[in-house]
Amino acid sequence: MKNDAVKKNVLIVYAHPEPTSLTRALVDVSVQTLQEQGHTVALSDLYGMKWKAVFDEHDFPARADTERLSFIAESGHAYSTGRQTADVEAEQAKLLAADAVILQFPLWWFSMPAILKGWVDRVFAYGLAYGYKGKGNHYRYGEGAFKGKRAMLSAIVGGPAEDYSPRGINGPLEQLLFPITHGTLFFPGMDVLPSHAVYGSGRITEAGVEAAKAIWRSRLENLFDDAPIPFRRQNDGDYPDQHVLANHIAVDQTGLLAHIAEKAEARVTGAAEG
Ligand SMILES: Cc1cc2nc3c(=O)[nH]c(=O)nc-3n(C[C@H](O)[C@H](O)[C@H](O)COP(=O)(O)O)c2cc1C
What we know:
Layout: E1 9-14, H1 22-36, E2 40-45, H2 71-80, H3 86-97, E3 100-106, H4 114-123, E4 150-156, H5 173-176, H6 178-186, E5 191-192, E6 196-198, H7 206-221, E7 269-271
The structure holds flavin mononucleotide.
């Protein structure tokens, strides 16, 4: 057992309604492995909870402006005045109590299922996950309410690993997941670990499932030791105006990878199909 002196709180948010799915099998591995390490595990089973995925006017029972619905203004108002819905408050409390957050989901259309996206849309309130301390974008990308927490994605992927390889037809998985790792988790300050994937989930054999569980188990054992993706922090000097990279940083580089520090390309660990 690693880190036996350090007991942490881990929140697992997962999105699969089928108990016999590979996603659920890997969620079970998460719970068991983390508990065996002495950590306290909280679960958000979004389908089981019948999580309301759609962010709409019902999220704001006490509107600041009843004439026109501005999501950002109402989110900030509801959060700061304690008038959010109970389900959102409960998830925020779980998130704030967590030292690490793991999102486990089947890859659907190169992203997370809508119910999980809806968890982010509704739980990541203005004043908390963005607009932190009422200071607009001052605290973002490495700073914010979730600083000090770790996060990791565990994606169960139908297609074969080669489709997601550096020159694969779908594009590299870590780049496809960038809006989640960088734009959603690093944005409010979390340290995001390289994502984990199980490929070829649709035609995986029993032996492949066992291998995938073992690899995931060993990944979890390093949850609090692995180095995070070295995303560049907004307020550490690489973005002098808080918007654009300085000319001397990532010279001649554009696109997503420019926001990851040199010599440390994001990598996905994972089990190939078997
Ligand atoms: C709506 C939908 C969208 C999907 N999109 C993708 C995709 O973008 N890439 C991919 O490789 N597989 C895709 N798949 C396949 C799923 O990733 C695959 O069915 C899932 O990983 C199986 O895992 P499970 O046993 O946990 O359901 C999709 C499946 C569904 C139902």
